[in-house]
Amino acid sequence: MSNKLINYLETAGLNWAVPVVRLCRGEDAREQASELFTKVGLPLIAVLVFLLVWSVGASQVKTSLGVLPGPAAVWHQAVNLYDEHQAQREKADAFYQRQEERNAAKLERNPDAEIKWRDYTGKPTFFDQIGTSLLTVFTGFVLASLIAIPVGVACGLSPKLYGAISPLVQIFKPVSPLAWLPIVTMVVSAVYISDDPLFQKSFITSAVTVTLCSLWPTLINTAVAVASIDKDWINVGRVIRLNWRTQVFKIAIPAALPMIFTGLRLSLGVGWMVLIAAEMLAQNPGLGKFVWDEFQNGSSDSLGRIMVAVITIGIIGFLLDWLMVTLQSLLSHQKPAGH
Amino acid sequence: MSVIAMRKEHLHELPAETAGEAPSRPRAFLDLSGVSIDFPTRKGPFRALNNVSLKIAKGEFVSIIGHSGCGKSTVLNIVAGLYQATEGGAILNGREVNQPGPERAVVFQNHALLPWLTCYQNVELAVKTVFKGRKNKREMREWIEHNLKLVHMDHAMHKYPAEISGGMKQRVGIARALAMEPSVLLMDEPFGALDALTRAHLQDSVMEIQADLNNTVIMVTHDVDEAVLLSDKIVMMTNGPAATVGEVLEVDLARPRDRLALASDERYNHFRSQVLSFLYERQRRPVE
Ligand SMILES: Nc1ncnc2c1ncn2[C@@H]1O[C@H](COP(=O)(O)OP(=O)(O)OP(=O)(O)O)[C@@H](O)[C@H]1O
Ligand SMILES: [Mg+2]
């Protein structure tokens, strides 16, 4: 039972929790304690040292917006942001409730009355912006993967195709996504015309920018992975005379999956970094815009709030990476050792 | 096609020794005639095999032995259809070989099991394709289980390759090949990567299966004892480049063969020493 738990923890990348389970199971306490110290204790000490250096260092730096905030001030701002979010929520709830009551009353007086439902249009809070950014990065990332994986597989299977598109890939890969941004913005506003748009234009622009730069790692990794599949496995397929589709889905893709995932992981990481920059530059909703707005705002709280955003961006990036690693160890055949 | 024409030609030219069979056997089940192959290299074409001819009867167990790099795998791969001969060709059961197919199933040296499939699924992948439309679901399942049982792997059939030993993986590889019901079973150093005990164990299994099914088998090997123990016929190849069949030794020891009893058998030791003297006197590896 606890072995299973340990397996799960290892699959999920939560290695630090393993000694805890072992301790609970009554394994050699000294060994587990030293394990716990290296896996949990040391990182904790590093964080504490960092916080100390930060709070001492920050107090020395005077900016036009006041002293650079230390950990305590940043924590205070984080709490503030949460409170603001709660307040907005309550306001929105109250708005919808009033609207509902009003409409119900209207219907009671006259069942045929025309009813209007309006959305609450409050200022998006910090947490709304997190949601927007996450949605955007996933949309862009999924779009990129849907293009990059099939194209990558095709390139891996056909050296000619790979040779043909390789120069394009080499040229577009190093382009900073921010250089794309103006073009994408113009193209989206020219092409995406709709009276009742399902998505906002800014959302599409950001998502497409993420797509454009997270295409490449996945595409290249997939192509290389498929091209370098163990020759014996290909020969197995040839001897059995698998048809084309089975060959691709039963042999090529599973064989390439570990490397495809490495590509996806890189792509998602790049996409997340790019998105924040794109949001700042294009004033598209999301965490980047939050940072930019606070910077423009220039109140004494701004630097603290920006730091909350920076730390949040880091934590989310880390969680996204963790998500991909966990997915990878769940889905591909290269199971972690000891499986 | 041209191969057929060439084959006739070669039959005239071939010295009796390399033509192999006694004239009493009219038509070989598998007939390799005048096979040569050039590999393209940076320094121009490299002739790995030159004029390899070989006849194999139905139900025969044939070993190919020779020094490393002489072209044993290449011969096997040509029969499998994985390589295309530059000249000459192989005819199996009256039909020319020009592409791979399940009637010439291959057991690969390092098992070549797909690690993302269980043992059962590995065999299933082959069975599903080969018997499509010929067996229903239940028959397929029974056939897969039957073949895994044949190699004594039914107890671990739902394990992944990473969870079983090297010998067990090789067994599953053999089961996969047998499950295709091949006319010829091709094995490229099937036990090369195994320790001596496991190897002996698997050799016994193969002999057992062979007694049961009476397959036609071509096996590439490095191991003289293995060749003598298992084969009806040992094909000894000269050193490359441009390697060819040097000598063919008929091993007419009675079956079933028992490795312990044979160890002190005079004829067994005679066959053994013949192969050894071919390899280490006449085809001594040039100092590299
Ligand atoms: N695809 C290839 N391209 C170029 N040369 C090749 C290729 N395959 C084999 N050769 C060459 O052909 C010769 C025979 O190779 P082969 O693999 O058949 O030898 P082998 O007898 O099976 O050796 P071993 O016992 O080491 O497996 C070697 O010199 C090898 O370098
Ligand atoms: Mg070989």
Automatic annotation (TrEMBL), chain A:
The keyword Cell membrane applies. Keywords: Cell membrane, Membrane, Transmembrane, Transmembrane helix, Transport. The keyword Transport applies. This is Nitrate ABC transporter permease. One of its GO terms (biological process) is transmembrane transport. Belongs to the binding-protein-dependent transport system permease family. GO terms for cellular component: plasma membrane. Residues 130-324 form the ABC transmembrane type-1 domain. It is a multi-pass membrane protein. Its main location: membrane. It is found in: Cell membrane. InterPro entries: MetI-like, MetI-like_sf. The chain crosses the membrane at residues 40-61, 134-157, 178-194, 206-230, 251-282, 302-325.
